[in-house]
Design goal:
Helix content is 24%, strand content 23%. By secondary structure, it is α+β, with helices and mostly antiparallel strands. α1 runs antiparallel to α3. The longest helix is centred in the middle third of the chain and has 18 residues, at 182-199. Keywords: Ligase.
Length: 296
């Protein structure tokens, strides 16, 4: 088993030649992606308790979520006690540096985080909308809904940042300052989703009813609940290819007419970062955050 040194930490890495994705992408390539792009991923992980979707044998193998600190976690990896929704606490990993990121990536995971920090549980410093298209709708229809939400959020003084979900849809995120109770953030998001559905009849819905989903975009506001998590910006997904939950520009959303134009894999990220920089940097910058409206 090869051992590498990352920021002074010795890390044993396993099965680097193992094919993880059907296109032939190996575990070594997956680890290289996280090591090279840790500088843009880490700001969205530090201070946040992690939920890990593990897929050690690839997306066609067994997948399972874990929130508890995995067995064998090194003692130098940060952890935090966070409240359970039903009472008591749960101990979770908090990735604080590149070494911890590479250690976690060696487990072959998707990174998922809540909208609050471990030191302020239940106080959301981000607002999120998950735009999920029901076939035959695609990400093209998600872009239309995203444009409406962006303008509406701006009217309330909030700045929206967009990324692909790494699956079929889009995620919109807004930094909040000061942080607001998750229940209040959830109520604001639910109201705005209902407003969007009313303004975009036939295109958007704000309820989870499956019979209403075909051809429409479901505006999922539920991930603002304190117990919920969202795929972290730049995480790889356990899909048919090494798709990335990749930040996108608003110009790309404005001009989106082909769903394939908003699909990105780990092989695309270096070029995108060279062209655009970190499009999500504002999400982790409190100077760019706004307060939740008083009546939210």
């Amino acid at each position: 088993m090869p051992v590498v040194t990352v920021e002074g930490r010795r890390l044993p890495l396993s099965n680097l030649d193992k094919v993880i994705y059907p296109d032939g992408t190996t575990k070594g390539e997956l680890l290289h992606y996280y090591a090279v792009h840790g500088n843009v991923l880490l700001p969205h992980l530090v201070h946040r308790p992690l939920s890990l979707l593990r897929y050690p044998d690839g997306p066609d193998g067994e997948t399972f979520f874990t929130k508890n600190v995995p067995p064998g976690t090194p003692d130098w990896v940060n952890t935090a006690d966070v409240p359970r929704s039903g009472g008591g606490t749960l101990r979770q990993v908090v990735v604080a540096d590149l070494a911890a990121l590479v250690w976690a990536a060696n487990l072959v995971v998707e990174f998922h985080t809540p909208q609050w920090r471990a030191d302020e549980p239940g106080l959301a410093d981000r607002l999120v909308f998950d735009l999920d298209p029901g076939a035959p709708a695609t990400v093209v229809e998600c872009c239309e809904v995203a444009r409406w939400l962006r303008e509406r959020l701006a009217a309330d003084g909030l700045t929206a940042y967009a990324k692909t979900s790494g699956s079929k849809g889009l995620h919109l995120l807004c930094p909040l300052r000061p942080a607001a109770p998750s229940a209040r953030t959830s109520a604001y998001a639910k109201g705005l989703a209902a407003e969007a559905a009313a303004a975009l009849p036939g295109l958007a819905i704000a309820t989870m009813a499956r019979r209403l989903r075909p051809g429409r975009v479901f505006i999922d506001h539920s991930q603002n609940a304190a117990r919920k998590t969202t795929a972290t910006p730049y995480t790889l997904r356990a899909r048919a290819a090494p798709f990335v939950s990749a930040p996108v520009t608003w110009d790309e959303i404005e001009s989106c007419a082909d769903p394939d134009r908003l699909v990105f894999t780990l092989h695309d990220l270096s070029g995108r970062l060279s062209r655009h920089g970190d499009l999500m940097s504002g999400l982790a910058d409190p100077r760019r955050a706004g307060p939740l409206p008083a009546d939210g």
